[in-house]
Write a structure and sequence with these properties.
Layout (H helix, E strand, L loop, with lengths): L3 E4 L9 H18 L11 E4 L26 H17 L19 H11 L10 H17 L1 H12 L8 E5 L1 H12 L7 E5 L30 E7 L31 E7 L8 H6 L1 H11 L4
Parallel strand pairs: 1-2, 1-3, 3-4, 4-5, 5-6
């Protein structure tokens, strides 16, 4: 009986649904409680849609071929995504991160030096302020690229979300790449009972690399609004370079307010919200414990208005 289903982000390939569910459910319940929306709600009503295993090669040791350092990057998609993250970090923190002049993707023949320059710039940001920062970002680049360029990976990830939706699931939460998976799964299943989508640290608005590759394809610069969706809250930290486009509302316009709707349904709405996650700007659990996230989920559950 999952009222809320959470779709995780990148870097979870060595975990599983059950190992993620308890901390995710507890954090989500804390956010809902902080928002004053916990009436009748508890962690037992939360489930996790797990797709991380699609990035784990059978029998592979370690990370299954992940680049060891930035200078190992040679895929054009991953290099361009690295540059997009650099640009987002420089915009968010101009006092810490130099602007991407002479970027790696902008070169006709990116060299290890230009790629490393992009990584070094990002290492100054709050987004990459940990000892394993470079390896983490390399994993982000690889998994995002594989989702959009390898059809079996994309199909299995979307199927993992579909497997967790039940008749009483009204809220779908997607973090990081999981927000893309959640969005595409929701669009592909207009009959689902989900009425509220909450995206956390989402790259959905990133032009060319993400937004323009979505299914269904955007039309005239506008993304498709999932059928039956009544509310969408997009939550991110202002220093999060994965969520390089902080405002999704201009790109995903709800249907017109005068559109014919079933009786009792309110007009669809979308809200962009900034949160402060401290030094872990992209962390899933910190997003879930935020009051702002709790309010969005509580509205979807009908426990706060």
């Amino acid at each position: 009986m999952a009222r809320v289903v959470v779709v995780h982000g990148v870097g979870q390939q060595f975990l599983g649904r059950n190992s993620l569910r308890d901390p995710v459910a507890a954090a989500l319940a804390d956010g809902v409680e902080l928002a004053g929306a916990a009436d009748g709600f508890g962690p037992q009503l939360v489930d996790v849609a797990f797709y991380g295993n699609v990035f784990r090669a059978p029998g592979a040791k370690g990370d299954g071929g992940l680049p060891q350092r930035a200078t190992d990057l040679d895929d054009p998609f991953e290099i361009e995504l690295l540059d997009a993250c650099w640009a987002a970090a420089a915009q968010a923190e101009p006092d810490r991160v130099p602007p991407p002049e002479g970027s790696a993707a902008g070169s006709k023949a990116p060299t290890p030096q230009t790629v490393q320059r992009a990584m070094n710039a990002l290492l100054r940001s709050r987004f990459l302020s940990t000892a394993v920062a470079e390896r983490f970002l390399l994993g982000v680049l690889r998994q995002v690229r594989r989702y959009f360029t390898e059809e079996p990976v994309r199909a299995r990830a979307v199927a993992a979300v579909a497997a967790r939706i039940e008749a009483d699931t009204t809220v779908l939460v997607g973090h990081s790449l999981g927000s893309v998976v959640a969005y595409e799964a929701l669009c592909a299943h207009p009959h689902w009972p989900v009425r509220t989508l909450v995206t956390l640290g989402s790259p959905l608005g990133m032009p060319k690399l993400v937004f323009d590759r979505l299914r269904p394809s955007p039309e005239a610069g506008r993304g498709h609004w999932p059928e039956g969706l009544e509310s969408w809250a997009n939550v991110c930290d202002r220093h999060d370079v994965v969520a390089s486009v902080k405002e999704l509302a201009p790109r995903f316009t709800p249907p017109a307010a005068d559109r014919e709707r079933p009786a009792g349904r309110s007009a669809p709405e979308m809200l962009d919200v900034l949160v402060d996650n401290g030094w872990k700007v992209h962390d899933l659990l910190r997003h879930l414990t935020a009051r702002e996230t709790g309010e969005a989920i509580g509205k979807g559950l009908g426990t706060v208005r």
